[in-house]
Specification:
The protein is mainly alpha-helical. The protein is built from 4 helices and 2 strands, in the order ααααββ. The chain starts with 35 loop residues before the first helix and ends with a strand.
């Protein structure tokens, strides 16, 4: 004969044979779409700026196109200059008249190397801007799902320690 009971049976009879989950009254009732970050990143990968539009951050779209456009612009400019000096060097080596008679062969080669480095750097920066566009869309979609309210806050504080002020950061967490 045992008088020990861990808890009383509070599950209704109609749910005893199946899994019964009591609704959480403290849960955040905002609907969270776990695929939203992946969808935003995919959209930005397909068309730069589309992920920002999906996240409703329209002000970022000109920044994305400005960064990618600037990189592409400098790539084209440096590639054209590189090809001009390269063609002048080939013309000179083939005994033809070139547009830069004032430069020696070594100077033409150095100028070609300079513009090639500038062109390659512009290409890397363009690729970096594209990748950052995709990352920004993904991270922004993740951050939109966070619960941001006044229950958690960071405040700067000044603590008097050993007669010298010490600056720090105080975290406040409020439970309702």
């Amino acid at each position: 004969m045992s008088d020990l009971h861990a808890q009383t049976d509070t599950i209704p009879a109609k749910h005893r044979d199946s899994l019964y989950i009591k609704p959480d009254t403290l849960a955040n009732h905002n609907k969270i779409n776990i695929l939203a970050p992946a969808k935003a990143a995919f959209y930005s990968a397909i068309l730069p700026g589309l992920g920002q539009a999906y996240n409703r951050q329209y002000w970022k779209i000109p920044i994305v196109y400005g960064a990618i456009g600037a990189g592409a612009y400098f790539y084209v400019i440096n590639n054209n200059e590189y090809n001009r000096f390269r063609q002048a060097y080939f013309d000179r080596k083939n005994g033809l008249e070139d547009e830069f008679p004032q430069y020696t062969d070594e100077v033409l080669i150095d100028i070609q190397k300079f513009y090639r480095r500038q062109r390659d750097t512009a290409m890397l920066l363009t690729i970096l801007a594209y990748v950052l566009n995709v990352i920004d869309a993904n991270v922004s979609a993740h951050l939109k799902q966070w619960n941001v309210n006044d229950n958690l806050s960071f405040e700067p504080v000044q603590l008097p320690v050993m007669q010298k002020p010490v600056f720090g950061l105080q975290m406040t967490l409020k439970f309702n």
